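Please, structure for the following, as tokens.
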Amino acid sequence: MIKSKQILTAAVIALSFFFVACGSTPEEKTPDAAAVEEAVNDAVDETEGALNSAKTPEEIEKENNELLKLAEEARKDALDAGAKDANSFAWEIAEKEYAAAKETVEASKTVDHSRLLKDVINRYNALKAYADAKKAKARVDELNFASYDQKNYNEGCALIDELAKPESNAVLGAEWGKKSNAALECMNSVLNAGFKELAKAERTEAFKAKKNADSVKCAVSRKADYDKYVENFKNGDQNYVTKDPEGALANYKKAKEGFTVLYSEVSEARAKAQKAIDEAKKRVADSEGTAQWADKEKPLGDEKIEGIEAEDAVLLEEDDFSESEANEVEVSEEIQEAE
């Protein structure tokens, strides 16, 4: 039993590493150091209880191995997220605890080390959240979004700065994780607020662009393109109400740009067509003047002459915009806020 206590105590040396690094002595315990020691003692007590539990040695060994695997996965996720660079001191703490945990499990495979292993998992998960929070803050700063939710931005910055201090590590992984996750939530809230405002403004512009496209009957002349941009607009609405304002912004932008191009191209084509019509009318008017002179000087009489249409003949069909009205897709000018 004493040997088991010694092994488990050695496994949490990683937490006391902080105090060694900072030059603390056993006689100069801070409240945080005392809390760590209490956590270690709790872990020892749990181990002693596990020795008399209903679990078989095989079951305990299997659980230890499963938790160790989860710890390895959590470590990889944290490393991939950039945790090592985001907070090198906290990373070293986690690495030492992880190494001690592996050694402990190997030395006493049938002893329940679940609390120790879970703390390792929590510590790596907390580091991943911290790295993600720093990346989110960097993005907020790059986009100048802080003013959209200044309160959460300030709170998130304070938590990030607090966790950057070495003394913040003198707690269990779950406690450190509460703050790193809170920092991430704060920064995500700022990003969400910023993208939400931009998305609403972009939606207004996309709606105006669609009305312009409707005014020149794009739903008929460029139906495939028109339908595609309507779909972008609707997808933006779907993103918005499902709390993905960044996705909404991207779709509204596609719709706005698409409708704008349609309006420009169709308007230009219509202008060219109108110019051709005006020129044709001018030629007709000139011809009528010539015909009037000819009728006066050399009248033809009432007989029908091949190649000359009757006076009341319909040469061009009237424009019919009923198809355009049927093809136009109505969208709401306002969007309902998600609950």
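The first helix runs from residue 2 to 11. Residues 1-14, 17-34 have pLDDT under 50 and may be disordered.
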